[in-house]
Amino acid sequence: MRKLPPVGTPLQVAEMAAALRAGPEALTQLAEALAERVPSYKVWLFGSGRAALGALLAALRTVSSRTRVIVPAYTCWSVPAAIVRTGLRVVPADVRPGDIDYDMERLSRLDWSDVLAVISPNLFGLPGDLTRLQGLAEAHDAVMIDDAAQALGASLRGAPVGSFGLAGIASFGRGKNMTALGGGAAFVRDDDLVMAMDNVADQWRNEPPPPGWNVAAKGAAMRLALHPQLFGAAAMMPGVTVGRTVYEPNFPTPALGPARAAVALRMLDRLDRLNQRRGQLAEVMDRYLGQSKAIVLPKARSGAVPSWLRRPILMQEPARRDELLTALQNGGIGATAMYPAPVHKIDDLAPDLDLRGAPFAGAERLASSLIALPLVEGWRQEDMQRLARIVTATLGRMKADRWV
Known about the structure:
By secondary structure, the protein is an alpha/beta fold. It contains 14 helices and 15 strands.
């Protein structure tokens, strides 16, 4: 049976070949290309997006005595892991499920005392209300870090996601908008922070990078595994983990290395085409799903150009989320529930939480309601039709209570 993977972009042969012949100049070329793409004074390259975030926070600690970082109460678990790795405390702030963004009214009333930084959401490639968030950060003498880990190539009113605030990050992980099978970048637009980053960056890339043959081999294996005819078997192989979320503050910090930089540089050349294709898939998917009154389809805000990574849908009745999720997975659609819990319910994070923003009803509703649908290569019309049939058969066509 055909099974669509939940996320992932197969590397092309030219990208794998670039990993094999890469030289150190690839690192400089990638940093320069990223600085042009996301306007920055300087770009640093790391082995992961969480290392890039950790380095930024460590640099900020050298120029400020503040110790708190505001994060969306529903976000990737790598974000609080990087914060804790730097010895800072995590301040979750509630979100609006329908926007998958901060509840800005509540955020504006939050106690910002001792807040060092606030991190933007931009989940699934949907730009948040970044101008307003930047204004709040500036009003409270905090630094906004614009997280483009899932939104590289997206924009808001013509400005690239990642370029708001004094700093930003990107990720080149296997499931991101463009992949180098790992890696990340930090963007800085402040002279003092540039100097601080120069002093700490190497501490966050202190392990050897993977060699070119390793990157090329993993790229070839991923290309095969992501094929809809092979993904089902590949996902059951020993040691293969798909969609697993782990809270891991003691994550490794290898350097990016020339091989992954060369892959990222080539992927950057086709990023817009990849984002456009995923956007087209999302539009088609919305036409097939738009008749169901049992789900909500979050939309991009006015003035935003999303870089759809996956298509999030929200259940009107959260109690039926797992029923639909199981039906989709059994039907060959690589749907996931994304993160298993909101930030304030990560057990191992409890000692490092500052819960001044409680309660978190929006984040809890989002965590219990959300299904992420894949926007991967290999979709066919019959797959879209099967998706619509599964949703209708599972949830029916009855109109549910209006989303709150």
